[in-house]
Amino acid sequence: MADESTPAPLGKVRPAASELHFRRLWQGIGWLMVAVVVWLSVTPHPPQPPSLLTWDKAQHLTAYAGLMYWFRQAFAAHWRWPVFLITLGVVLELLQSMIPLRNGDLVDVVANSLGVGIGLALGRSPLGGLLAAADARIARLGR
């Protein structure tokens, strides 16, 4: 996998996660997002999503795409993050099969994994610099 100094599309170099002013905050938000996904996955009666995302597979794809997109920006680019998120999706589906009123689903694992791929692609696109741009803007406000 390419390192953070690899030129982004349009010739811009995306700053490394270690160069973010509020790196720990962004990473903490990422782990909070993981905690929310875990809670939603293992609670017997999760809250119902907005009507726009009533299809279960879209929820899985969106959640894991969002996680990977965030992790790609807040943490150093490394193969372990997609592997971690795909493994998390598999483990949570296995746990769901053991929880009353829930059931694990192989198609959910596929949706989770596709979401990780989409999030990774978004993180490598020009959109992958949005967190760094927000971080820089917030840092300038504090001066």
Secondary structure layout plus pairing:
Blueprint (H helix, E strand, L loop, with lengths): L22 H20 L13 H19 L5 H17 L9 H19 L5 H12 L2
Helix pairs in contact: 1-2, 2-3, 2-4, 3-4
Summarize, please:
This protein has a domain at 56-143.
In percent terms, what proportion of residues is strand? under 5%
Q: Which runs of at least 5 residues are low in confidence (pLDDT < 50)?
A: 1-12
**Biggest sheet features:** none
Query: What is the tally of helical segments?
Result: 5
Fraction of residues in helices?
55-70%
In terms of structural class, how would the helical and strand content be classed? Answer: mainly alpha
Order of helices and strands: HHHHH
Radius of gyration: 16 Å
CA-to-CA gap between the ends?
36 Å
The overall pLDDT average reads 87
Shape: elongated
Write up this protein.
With about 140 residues, the chain is an all-alpha fold. It has a domain of about 90 residues. Helices cover about 60% and strands about 0% of the residues. Helix 2 packs antiparallel against helix 3 and helix 2 runs parallel beside helix 4. The N terminus is likely disordered.
